[in-house]
Amino acid sequence: SRPPDRLFPLGTRLSLCRFTIAGRLLIRKLIAEKLCIPWNEIHLQRTSKGKPFLANNVFGIYSNYNFNVSHQGDYAVLAAEPELQVGIDIMKTNLPGNASIPNFFRIMERQFTETEWCVIKSMSNEWMQLDMFHRHWALKESFLKAIGVGIGFNLQRIEFNVSPLQLEVGKVYKETKMLLDGDKEEEWTFEVRSIEIYFFNNNKQSQHHKRNQPQFTLLTFEDLVASGIPITPEDSACWDNFCSKQEHPVKQNSPSR
């Protein structure tokens, strides 16, 4: 089973729209620049389980090119691979709505194995435990997104042995291993990195601290659309409608997308 919607941070309609658009622009920029397909000729579709893919016929070394996007918190991110399956997930450590952290863990108990819970709860305080929870969650989501399966997958079939326990911002770690149905999966590589450090203070407010520049290519909106070609005629009414969307809370179906 999957976790109930109410446990996760509330977003806003406008911010979700922005992140969705950013994800689509990332995909089109990638395909246009790496595969040399003009924006207005790119045909994107989704599998029956919702994973986006390029429907254009691509031959040669990029015939198996695949990509994945995720957004949550302050970032929309993309990962791509010319040959191998790829999945990406990004998490911002947030307090679980109105639930206390121990109660949140109790409700989410079925999502992780006993070994994973031991690691999560071994951290020195509740905030670090929550951060480790989100790290495990992102690993599981990235794998499910890579293989393109839906919400019916039993998350306890997957078990992660995370390493190291402490992450340095901006550094890439590849030591984490996965077990599937109890067997170690040697063919999968998991890259883990912390973009920002979030901590919990005595006033129960989340703050963040950037130690150094993450090893990602950070793009502005101008960067995203630099090579863009209009797909449909400009419609100012659509833009006005987008800008008028209210910033009121909506539920998210999962911790990240």
Notes on the protein architecture:
Residues 19-82 form the 4'-phosphopantetheinyl transferase N-terminal domain. Keywords: Transferase. It catalyses: apo-[ACP] + acetyl-CoA = acetyl-[ACP] + adenosine 3',5'-bisphosphate + H(+); apo-[ACP] + CoA = holo-[ACP] + adenosine 3',5'-bisphosphate + H(+). By secondary structure, this protein is an alpha+beta fold. The chain has a single domain (5-250), classed as Alpha-Beta Complex (Ribosomal Protein L22, Chain A). It has 6 helices and 11 strands. The protein has helices at 13-34, 101-107, 114-121, 126-147, 221-225, 236-243; strands at residues 11-12, 44-46, 52-54, 66-72, 75-81, 158-161, 177-180, 183-184, 197-200, 206-209, 249-250. It has a 3-stranded antiparallel beta sheet, covered by helices on one side. Strands 1-11 form a two-stranded antiparallel ribbon. It has a two-stranded antiparallel ribbon with strand order 2-3.
Name the descriptors.
257 residues, alpha+beta, Ribosomal Protein L22, Chain A, three-stranded antiparallel beta sheet, two-stranded antiparallel ribbon, 11 strands, 28% helix, 16% strand
